[in-house]
Specification:
By secondary structure, the chain is α+β, with helices and mostly antiparallel strands. It folds into two domains: 166 residues, Ribosomal Protein S5, domain 2, CATH 3.30.230; 124 residues, GHMP kinase, C-terminal domain (Alpha-Beta Plaits). It is 35% helix and 24% strand. The strands form two sheets. Strands 1, 2, 3, 4, 5, 6 and 11 form a seven-stranded mixed beta sheet that branches. A four-stranded antiparallel beta sheet has the order 8-9-7-10. A hairpin with a 6-residue loop joins strand 8 and strand 9. The longest helix has 20 residues. L-homoserine binds next to helix 4 and helix 5. This is Homoserine kinase.
């Protein structure tokens, strides 16, 4: 029996515009945990992008792991979890979904639960409340998902995207609950039909890998961006500048405040340089679709 593992989970961007609460894309930015069995639970946080509080009982990853263990009537052997992350908190890059997915995998390993990928999709999406970020963290690549009233997730998964994604991360946090708080509870039927048509066109364009149309429909959201735009630093300026610099399109990453542009791979260097110069208070980061979802490495006992 092994006593140490690495669990690596990609962060993600959600919505890509009108794919609200449904479409996700795993990004090449990761949450990584080194897990070692020991006599009591301990969390160690390394570097930036991790909360300062390492209290075990209130830790999202611990709480998630214990919740899953309880669901399966299992008990978890205690361990030390050393965690580092490339996902800044509360910026719309799926840091909490990645932590939830990591917590589920931790329970899977320590409780020997033999969870299937479908189990992981369902549990993570139920905890999150929607399947966009969670599915992308479980599978990597692009995910188009729906969750039914019983919490069962159906996901269409496309691994490869021949484009790069550039995130504009401002130096402010925005809680998802605050960003969801500005959304209307109801939409008028004609408006909802237009919003839905744009979402359909986005999904179809993603499957067809029609990047010009992907960009156009990423910018055609009616479900959430019109209501959230005023909360987002440089929302209009970044859309305009990115388009001028060659982006196919730009959208809010999840609930924001990060914005994400999809760009041709051939322009990535000059695009990043130009955007970083124009938006010096944002961190402008080049990413690609994550080539895998949850990755577990098992070490031999001697580590
Ligand atoms: N789809 C979610 C939203 C992502 O836009 O609120 C953040 O949880």
């Amino acid at each position: 029996m092994s006593n140490s593992w690495q669990i690596k989970v990609p962060g993600s961007t959600a919505n890509l515009g009108p794919g609200f609460d449904s479409i996700g894309l795993g990004l090449s930015l990761y949450l990584t945990m080194e897990v070692t069995l020991q006599n009591e639970w301990e969390f160690v946080h390394i570097g930036d992008n991790v909360p300062s509080d390492t209290t075990v009982e209130t830790h999202l990853i611990y709480k998630t792991a214990q919740q899953v263990a309880k669901q399966y009537n299992a008990s978890l052997r205690p361990c030390k979890v050393e965690m580092k992350s490339e996902l800044p908190l509360a910026r719309g890059l799926g840091s909490s979904a990645a932590a939830i997915v990591a917590g589920i995998e931790l329970a899977n390993i320590l409780g020997e639960l033999n969870l299937t990928t479908q189990d992981k999709l369902n549990i993570s999406s139920q905890i999150e409340g929607h399947p966009d970020n969670a599915s992308a963290s479980v599978l990597g690549g692009l995910t188009i998902s729906s969750m039914d009233e019983q919490g069962v997730v159906d996901t269409l998964h496309i691994q490869e995207m021949d484009a790069a994604f550039v995130v504009f991360i401002p130096n402010v946090e925005l809680k998802t609950s605050d960003s969801r708080g500005v959304l209307p509870s109801q939409l008028e039927r004609g408006y909802a039909v237009r919003a839905s048509a744009n979402a359909n066109m986005l999904a179809a364009s993603l499957i067809a890998k029609d990047y010009v149309r992907i960009g156009r429909y990423m910018e055609a959201d009616l479900f959430h961006e019109p209501f959230r735009a005023e909360l987002i630093p440089n929302y209009t300026e970044i859309h305009e500048a990115a388009k001028l610099a060659g982006a196919y399109g730009t959208a809010l990453s999840g609930a924001g405040p990060t914005l994400i542009s999809i760009i041709p791979l051939s322009i990535k260097e000059q695009f990043i340089e130009a955007m970083q110069k124009q938006f010096p208070t944002h961190q402008v980061v080049l990413t690609t679709g994550a080539s895998a979802g949850i990755q577990v490495t098992t070490y031999s006992n001697s580590k």
